[in-house]
Model the fold of this input.
Amino acid sequence: MTLHHVVVGVDGSLVSVRALDWAADEASRRGVELVVVYAVPDSDEAGPVLASAVTRLTARHPELSVVTKDAVGGPVRTLVRESEGADLTVVGTRGMGGLAGLLFGSVSLRLAVHVRSPLLVVRGDHPCDDGRPVLLGLEGDSDQDTALYAFQEAERRGVPLHVLHSWTHRHVTPELPSLAPAMSPGQEQLAQQGRAEESVPRFTLARLSEQHPGIQVESRTVRTGPAHTLLEATRDCAVVVVGARHRTHRFGPRVGPVAHTLLHRSHCPVVVVPTAK
Done:
């Protein structure tokens, strides 16, 4: 397998055809190979679906290098394995073989936790190349890889980058109001915390803007409801990029609430970038 490649999971359904088209556009934009994977209980079932995928790709992207693979097993485990070393892993929003009748949301959430490369979940009905901006959801200093991916995606597309930074203050011990006009110790602590939190995206964005001078960046900070604000912003964007933000759970690791909301309800495709656990 080549060093640089895009992986896409297919199963013959209409939503997987849409994922195939997005993956082909992404591979063409990057100038890399496309690996088409079909996870099935029996490898004999894969032939017609993979042949149909190749026919479609040849007609739409004759210059694209394509490799097909059939894998016996579940789609999540297969795609996690195939995502190793990939530039991007792409899936549709429902119907990964062997999971008929099961909402794809649960599969995308499992992939987002375990996938080893950026994961693109194709949602909404926007065309892949329509000139809309890239949207970045930025939460803190652990999102530097996420921010870098968003800058690179905006650069590949030749579109602006819209950044939404969420800031939520940590708990400060309640105290009696001060009669003096100066800030109380608690208020000063909160103000210092706010300045520190807001300096993270400014530093990250300034550094990346220097490295990608051609990208027009529009940034804003929200203090409440980041998931809802991001969700609304996805109506007008080509793709939204967020970090996985793993959380500990009694049933195993889970993505954070922002990624969870977007994977279920975003109006445009979602890219989830692996972050430190």
The longest strand covers residues 33-40. The two ends are 28 Å apart (CA to CA).
